[in-house]
Design goal:
Interacts with HSPA5. Pfam families: Fes1. The protein is mostly helical and 464 residues long. It has 22 helices and six strands.
């Protein structure tokens, strides 16, 4: 027994060593077993070794043609040379070093669709094309577009040709018809030559002047008429023995003078003012005098030098005789309007000079040499204008009232002595009060008759 106990005592360390060895072997086996069933990680966590293997594998691939891999819902190994469709789930097996592919789960696929709506690209096209295929397709697309554009251009050009004729054909037709396209300058030259020709009939001359008046309304055309001597030809037409020639020549001159200083100056030097006054002072048809007065007004307005010459040549006497002539009431209103324009024009020029406080310019100096108001008083225009209030037309009365207001400072004493003027103003005041009341009933606070009534009241107040 002692011998057996000693033996057991000696074997105890050996058993412990054996046990430790078995535990170590068991641990080793467990580690070996886990490595056979190692978990895989996504491609992003690949090691340098696997990246090197992938690089070598990709370099061995054909760069132009790739086989498309069709994944399923199970993990499958991806062979070298196979292309993965966009949207597939790819992982790298760290144990085998191979890439594995499967279709995405439904929830992840829906998330990708949401990402597409937010602007991310999801390409589900699995077709494979080489670079040469793409180049050929692009070349064919360009050729097709060019052919389509060429067809559209040809169709459009065909439609245009149907609608319009070529300019060469039009020119040929015009030549056959002896039609020549002329400029305004060429037309005016032709019209002046026709008017000035001794072989032209009276009707042809009148037609030439009538057409010429249309062109000289434009400032440039009126100056062109001056440049080739046509203006003087028309001025000379005022001396014609035919009243119609005088009438239409004055008509052309009135249009050419209007707001055209260059033409106005040449007209004064060409003797237009004297000829117009002669027509107004002599016995002529009413229509001829109307056109002559129109030309005179266009020549005098905004031209102080012409106004000076008008006074020197006795223009006011000519107009006074015209106004007092029987049957010339229509011209009387136009004369009064002209006088009002000339008085206020000078007044405004002087007021502008006072406001600017500058040295008087040459134009203002010319206006100051026009002594119009004293001449009007001396030649009896205060009484002549006052008597025109007897005209029945409201428009004529309005213009006469305006002129009386402009002459009030100069003609105050004459107006005080004119008892007929006071009676006329009183009568008109009562008439226009009734008419203004009717306007007020119709809702017009500032009507036409109210303005006339204000002018009468202002004039009566100034005479007190």
């Amino acid at each position: 027994m002692p011998h057996q106990g000693l033996l057991l005592f000696r074997m105890a360390p050996l058993c412990m060593l054996l046990g430790m060895l078995m535990v170590s072997c068991f641990n080793f086996c467990l580690c070996h077993k886990n490595s056979e069933f190692a978990l895989t990680n996504p491609e992003k966590s690949s090691t340098k070794e696997t990246e090197r293997k992938e690089t070598i594998a990709e370099e061995e691939l054909e760069p132009k043609i790739l086989e498309v891999f069709h994944p399923t819902h199970e993990w499958q190994a991806l062979r070298p040379g196979q292309a993965v469709p966009a949207g597939s789930h790819v992982r790298l097996n760290l144990q085998t070093g191979a890439r594995e592919v499967k279709l995405q789960d439904e929830d992840k696929f829906q998330a990708n669709l949401k990402g597409l709506k937010k602007g991310k690209r999801l390409d589900i096209n699995t077709n494979t094309y080489t670079s040469q295929d793409l180049k050929n397709a692009l070349a064919k697309f360009k050729e097709g577009a060019e052919m389509e554009n060429s067809k559209e251009d040809q169709e459009r050009q065909a439609k245009v040709k149907q609608l319009f004729r070529p300019i060469e054909e039009l020119k040929k037709d015009f030549e056959e018809l002896n039609v020549v396209i002329e400029t305004d300058m060429q037309i005016m030259v032709r019209l002046i030559n026709k008017f000035n020709s001794s072989s032209s009939s009276l009707e042809e001359k009148i037609a030439a002047l009538f057409d010429l008046e249309y062109y000289v309304h434009q400032m440039d055309n009126a100056q062109d008429l001056l440049s080739f001597g046509g203006l003087q030809v028309v001025i000379n037409g005022l001396n014609s023995t035919e009243p119609l020639v005088k009438e239409y020549a004055a008509f052309v001159l009135g249009a050419a003078f209007s707001s055209n200083p260059k033409v106005q100056v040449e007209a004064i030097e060409g003797g237009a003012l004297q000829k117009l006054l002669v027509i107004l002072a002599t016995e002529q048809p009413l229509t001829t005098k109307k056109k002559a007065l129109f030309a005179l007004c266009s020549l005098l307005r905004h031209f102080p030098y012409a106004q000076q010459q008008f006074l020197k040549l006795g223009g006011l006497q000519v107009l006074r005789s015209l106004v007092q002539e029987k049957g010339m009431e229509v011209l009387a209103v136009r004369v009064v309007t002209l006088l009002y324009d000339l008085v206020t024009e000078k007044m405004f020029a002087e007021e502008d000079a006072e406001l600017t406080l500058d040295a008087p310019p040459e134009r203002l100096q010319q206006y100051r040499q026009v002594h119009l108001l004293p001449s009007l008083q001396e030649q009896g225009w205060c009484e002549i204008t006052a008597h025109l209030l007897a005209l029945p037309e409201h428009d004529a009365r309005e213009k006469v009232l305006q002129t009386l207001g402009a002459l009030l400072a100069t003609c105050r004493d004459r107006f005080h002595q004119d008892t007929q003027l006071r009676r006329t103003l009183g009568t008109l005041q009562a008439e226009y009060q009734a008419l203004a009341a009717l306007e007020l009933q119709e809702g017009e606070d500032e009507g036409y008759f109210r303005e006339l009534l204000d002018s009468i009241n202002s004039l009566l107040t100034g005479l007190r």
